[in-house]
């Protein structure tokens, strides 16, 4: 079965990341994947292209510059027909708005997935989200990546809630790619980080933009260092806030304890070598970084928002705090760093939980079942 994956762009993000994971599972399920980005490959909107190509995924760009571009739907309908696909799977808001309409023109069934929890939006962004939910709800099926996301959208848009078409499919993590270090392996991080061997390291993986928690983590670090003088905060990723975060670390006197690693393609090698993962996020549907850390046997310290508690069980697989306030972040990080026995116990429990609930194999099979259902004209709800 051929699936055309339509996505808003190939920016750095969790939705784009899951395409690489799906590519690794597709052959055993008899799936042939092709990726179509609505946006052109300019202005940083093709960051993930090398990763997708390395995974063997053919990628095309439609080149749309705005959602309501008059030629957009006809162009997309032609691309769907030309692909020869059996099913279209749209990811993110713009794709979930345009693909169901274009799919109807091309006579192909369309599934849509939204990867966020609705927040406080206004103006154009509010309209964009409302359109995605309204049109996506009229596709063959609208998928949410967590129960928290489903519930929040149902509460925000009750008129668009179509229970027979809405469903939850948790994203999965590749348990072979992300796994604990084998016994006897070195836990030393790359020398370019300048982190001495044996010091505690809290890693935060994510795009550096408002709401992702990097600022709160940096603001918490003086308090952490007061209790754990050698502790390092490892920021993995880049983005528009990077220079501001560097300045903040300098102003707070912790520049030597905050390491900026930049965007990395070896996260699976880094995570098993850190002490904990920290994510003081403001909103998260289902955090990929926490799934990957859990698969590596690394416990998480995170905000109990959105789908985070579906991944991290407080007191069992990690530490959760109520809000991303720096004092709460610091208190939880200090507790985690101060108890190696409990860290090991929760890390092992985190690995066991992702094996049971979040494996990429189970996730891909759930998607393949839905692809087969909608290709055959059946509903997705009770699968």
Automatic annotation (TrEMBL):
Q: State if Protein biosynthesis is listed as a keyword.
A: no
Origin species, per record, is Geodermatophilus sabuli
Entry-linked Pfam families:
Glyco_transf_4, Glycos_transf_1
A molecular function (GO) term: glycosyltransferase activity
Q: Locate the Glycosyltransferase subfamily 4-like N-terminal domain: which residues?
A: 12-177
Q: Where is the Glycosyl transferase family domain?
A: 190-352
**Which keywords label this protein?**
Glycosyltransferase, Transferase
- UniProt key word Acyltransferase: no
Q: What is this protein called?
A: Glycosyltransferase involved in cell wall bisynthesis
């Amino acid at each position: 079965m051929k699936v055309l994956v339509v996505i808003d762009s190939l920016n750095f993000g969790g939705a784009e990341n899951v395409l690489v994971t799906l590519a690794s599972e597709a052959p055993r399920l008899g799936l042939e994947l092709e990726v179509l980005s609505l946006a052109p490959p300019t202005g940083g909107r093709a960051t993930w292209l090398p990763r997708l190509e390395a995974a063997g995924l053919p990628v095309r760009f439609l080149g749309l510059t705005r959602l309501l571009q008059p030629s957009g739907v006809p162009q997309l309908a032609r691309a769907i027909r030309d692909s020869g696909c059996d099913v279209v799977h749209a990811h993110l808001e713009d794709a979930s708005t345009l693909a169901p309409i274009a799919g109807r023109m091309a006579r192909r069934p369309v599934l849509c997935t939204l990867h966020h929890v609705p927040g406080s939006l206004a103006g154009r962004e509010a309209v964009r989200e409302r359109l995605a939910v309204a049109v996506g709800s009229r596709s063959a099926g609208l998928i949410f990546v967590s129960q928290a996301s489903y519930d929040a959208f149902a509460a925000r848009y009750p008129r668009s809630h179509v229970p027979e078409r809405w469903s939850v499919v948790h994203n999965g993590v590749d348990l072979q790619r992300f796994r604990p270090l084998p016994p006897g392996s070195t836990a030393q991080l790359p020398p370019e980080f300048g982190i001495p061997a044996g010091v505690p390291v809290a890693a935060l993986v994510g795009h550096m933009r408002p709401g992702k928690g990097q600022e709160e983590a940096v603001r918490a670090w003086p308090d952490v260092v007061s209790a754990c003088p050698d502790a390092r905060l490892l920021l993995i990723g880049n983005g528009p806030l990077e220079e501001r975060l560097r300045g903040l670390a300098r102003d707070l006197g912790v520049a030597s304890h905050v390491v900026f690693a930049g965007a990395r393609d070896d996260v699976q090698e880094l995570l098993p070598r850190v002490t904990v993962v920290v994510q003081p996020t403001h909103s998260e549907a289902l955090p990929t970084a926490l799934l990957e850390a859990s698969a590596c046997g690394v416990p998480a310290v995170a905000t109990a928002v959105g789908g985070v508690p579906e991944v991290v069980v407080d007191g069992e697989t990690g530490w959760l705090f109520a809000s991303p306030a720096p004092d709460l972040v610091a208190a939880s990080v200090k507790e985690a760093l101060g108890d190696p026995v409990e860290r090991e116990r929760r890390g092992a429990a985190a690995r066991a939980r992702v094996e049971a609930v979040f494996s990429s194999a189970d996730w891909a099979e759930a998607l393949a079942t839905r692809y087969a259902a909608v290709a055959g004209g059946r509903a997705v709800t009770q699968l």
